[in-house]
Write a structure and sequence with these properties.
The chain is α+β, with helices and mostly antiparallel strands. It contains 11 helices and 22 strands.
Length: 510
């Protein structure tokens, strides 16, 4: 298991958040929470809650907040906060196209390198309304086309050697420890790479056939023929049960789909992971080059470095002639990438941010390097030894563990920093947008919570900021684990807890 514990700093360097006195007990609030949990099987699980006030950082309420919980996507709070502080909100991801030398008099270069630098939004559009609308539709990527046009403007007419998709900015560790095998099929568990395309996922669209007994209509977007689709999904009678099964073996290029879909069912859309993103980006770039009138004589090659290769590698010889940059593409500023990560809870974005932290801070682009940066950051905000176990950047790993107390320390720290307004703007708003758009609508908390959601089987979490009618702002973390509730039931229970916390502190005289 790849997991790093945050190391405690010597006492003189601990933040005020880690030296706080214990809150006064609140029997009435605890009784109300017990009542909420007793209304369902939520009481069979474990729930941790902590509430603090700003700007003092004083802890107002704590219930089992020192216990470790699986954070689910609340893990993204640590990853995105570290990215904003360590990289800066104006950091950009620069994808370049390079060659060993400038084109000769006939417009020829030998090898051409498409060098990925960890841009999670590269050729990204159909999956995110926040970034690059219109990208990657109909099997094309305007960004790749623009790069090809830049190269043509440099009078390049022919690539005599290979087109290299250079993925070596990150170590080649496409799958994280603690991710379930079934996660790897879907877009939320997409392969992690330095060269990404459309968030490394495709849309799988499914509709019933024209009549009972027909095969269902199934197609992929934006690349219809990327996978071989084995369609055994039958159209069943109107009103019948929907039974849909989708499988793809690890690294296989075939998707098997079977079961039945009712004749009166609407269209179903799922996101499936791209098996080999750098190879696909290279192939699409080759097509873009040829469309721009640039001949590519060699094949597409992928350059990546495994963890083993990095561990045993000797220092490379000095490069006497640095490669020539022929074209480049800059992402939107990091603050926009972080906003998409948190608002939409984008796992791949968080994983690429984590590895970028490793590359930029530790000069190594591996998972462990990113986790090391994350642990050091947690230490800097006052998180003590044993309060966190970090295994990935997104919270999809079942090995992640964080206390509610640690999240409150992080949130207090961010509230005192220069980037707080930017950080707050990245969080979903209750009843308004992101993953909270459909929650708290029509309640007294609508618009009053900026917080990150977290959801997995038997896991519900919500951590962020809560604004009281008095103008006072609270920080809070609510985490539920190991309960038998379905996703919506778990979210409803958590929302009732949040409302109870709000009502309790809204009534109190400050």
């Amino acid at each position: 298991m790849v997991a790093l514990w945050c190391v405690a700093m010597p006492a003189p360097f601990l933040s005020a958040a880690s030296r706080r006195p214990k809150p006064h007990p609140s029997p009435a609030l605890n009784a109300r929470l017990d009542e909420i949990l007793s209304l369902s099987d939520a009481s069979r699980g474990f729930w941790g809650i902590e509430v603090g006030e700003l700007p003092s950082g004083r802890i107002l309420f704590s219930r089992d907040a020192q216990h470790l919980f699986h954070p689910a996507s609340n893990m993204k709070l640590f990853t995105t906060a570290a990215a904003l502080e360590k990289l800066g909100p104006d950091f950009v991801f620069r994808t370049t196209v390079e060659s060993e030398s400038a084109p000769d008099a006939q417009g020829r270069v030998k090898n051409l390198y498409l060098v990925g630098k960890g841009d999670p939004s590269f050729c990204e559009g159909i999956s995110s309304p926040l970034l690059n609308p219109g990208e990657a539709k109909n099997g094309s990527c305007p960004t790749l086309q623009k790069l090809a046009e830049q190269i043509r403007a440099r009078r390049v007419l022919e690539i005599t050697g290979a087109l290299v998709a250079d993925d070596s900015y990150f170590l080649w560790e496409p799958y994280n420890h603690g991710w379930a095998a079934e996660d790897l099929l879907w877009g939320y568990g997409a392969t992690v790479s330095a060269l990404a395309l459309n968030a490394n996922a495709l849309q799988l669209r499914i509709k019933p056939g024209l009549k009972v007994g027909d095969r269902a209509q199934i197609w992929l977007e934006p690349l219809a023929d990327y996978y071989q689709v084995n369609n055994s999904l039958e159209t069943s009678g109107a009103g019948s049960e929907r039974r849909l099964r989708v499988e793809r073996d690890l690294d296989s290029m075939r998707i098997d789909i079977w079961g039945q879909i009712p004749l009166d069912a609407g269209e179903t859309t799922e996101r499936v992971a791209i098996a080999r993103p750098p190879q696909l980006v290279g192939e699409l770039f080759r097509q873009a080059l040829e469309d721009a009138g640039i001949a590519v004589r060699g094949g597409v090659e992928v350059h990546y470095v495994t963890r083993l290769e990095a561990a045993i590698a000797t220092p490379p010889p000095l490069q006497l002639s640095p490669r020539v940059v022929l074209a480049e593409h800059d992402s939107q500023p990091l603050r926009e990438i972080v906003k998409a990560t948190n608002k939409e809870s984008r796992n791949l974005f968080a994983e690429m941010l984590l590895r970028t932290l490793g590359r930029e801070v530790k000069h190594r682009g591996g998972l462990e390097d990113g986790l090391e940066v994350l642990s050091e950051f947690a230490q800097q905000v006052g998180v003590a030894r044993g309060e966190t176990v970090f295994a990935d950047g997104s919270g999809l790993s079942r090995d992640d563990l964080v206390t509610p107390e640690a999240f409150v320390k992080l949130l207090i720290h961010m509230a005192s920093g220069q980037a707080f307004d930017l950080f707050l703007d990245t969080l979903p708003v209750a009843g308004v947008d992101g993953t909270l758009a459909g929650r708290f609508k029509g309640t007294r908390l609508e618009g009053r919570i900026h917080a990150k959601t977290g959801t997995l089987e038997q896991v519900n979490a919500l951590s962020g900021y809560m604004d009281l009618p008095s103008g006072k702002r609270l920080v809070f973390s609510i985490m539920g684990n190991s309960h038998p509730l379905k996703e919506q039931q778990g979210a409803a229970t958590l929302d009732q807890i949040a409302l109870a916390v709000y009502d309790w502190f809204a009534r109190r005289k400050r």
